[in-house]
Amino acid sequence: MVYADALVIGGGIAGVSVGHYLAQAGRTVTLVEQEPQLASHTTGRSAAVLYESYGTRANQRLTKASLDFFRSPPEALVDVPLVARRGVLLVARPSQMESLRAEASHGVGLLPISTSEVRSMVPVMRTELLGGALLEPQAADLDVAGLHQAFVRGMLRSGATIRTSSPVEALTRSHGCWKVRTPGEVITAPVVVNAAGAWCDLVAEMAGVEPIGLTPLRRTAFMVPGRPEWSEWPAVVDVDQRWYFKPDGEQLLCSPAEEQPSPPCDARPLEVDIALAIDRINRATSLGIRTVRSSWTGLRSFVADRSMVIGFDGTADGFFWLAGQGGTGIQTSPGAGRLAASLIVHGQPPDDHLQIGVRPEDYSPDRLR
Asked: Does the pTM exceed 0.90?
C-alpha cells in the first residue's frame, strides 16, 4: 500500500497543475491517469489561445492570476517561451450587434475597430457582411504541450509520483483517509483531488459523493491549407461562437465551435460538424476552403453557471473538486492550480488571488447544491 498526502486523479492540465503546486508546497503527491499517456483527451486537443475576455467573470480572474506564469515562467521548467502574440478578432453580422455590445461590456481589454481595419488585418473577410468587430490585441497563442510539460517537470523535481495506465477501480473512505484502488496498487491519502475532466462526476459517484451536474460538450477542430502571409492574422471568432479560425504555422485551424452534449469518451469528429464549419467560414470570408488535412474533437466540461469548480466538497471530508474548466482550462491552469493547492494547504486563496477578487465561494462545489 502506498501513502500520499494528496492523490490527484487525472493527468490533464488540471491534474498536473495542482500536483505541481502541492508538491512545491512540500506535500507528497501521487497522480493517477487512466490512459497510457498524460493529456490524452481535452488538454491535448486545445485550440491553445490565451484570451483574457473569454469565460465567466470568475474564470477571467483565474486567467488574470495566470498571466505572470505565462509571461515569466520558471526557467527550470520550460525550454521555450509559452506565449506568442496573436490577437483575437470578434466579428458580428448586423443581426449580431446585440451580442457584440454584450461582449464589449463583459470582456477585458476589447477595442472596437472599423470594418476597414478588419479588412486590413484579415483581407479575406467579407466586410460588407459585417456590422461591427472587437479586437483583443493582447491575446496570444499558448504552447499547451510546453505548459503541461512544465507542470510535469515541477511535480517530478519536487518528488511527486505519476502513474499512467492506472484507472481508479474503487474509491472509499475510512479512518480519515481515502483508499484508492488501481490495477497495480492501493493508495491511501487524506485528500483526493478530482481532476478527471469529463469523468469528474463519475469519479464522484464512485466515491459516494453527489455529482455537480457536469456536462461534457463536444468541440471539433480541423486543419486546412494556409499560406505563409496569413501567419500574422489574429484568431477570428464569430461573436456568437458559431465558428472560428486562426493561423497555425502555414495552416489554418478551424472549428464550428459546437457545444453538443456527450458522455465522457474518446470523442471523434463528425463529418457534418466539419462541413457546417466550412460552410459558415466560407460564407464569412473568401477563403474557399475545400480540403481538410486533419481533424479532432475534445470534450469541454461545464456546470450550470459555467464557472469552474474548485474546493472541498461539503458532504465528503477530504474530497476536493478541480472540475468544470470548460474552454478556459489551459489559460487558467497556473491560477487554478495555485488556488486549489492553497485551499488544500492553507484553507484560503493566495494573497495575490485575493487582491484581484478571487473568492472561494465563487468556485465552491456547494454553490451548485
From this structure: yes
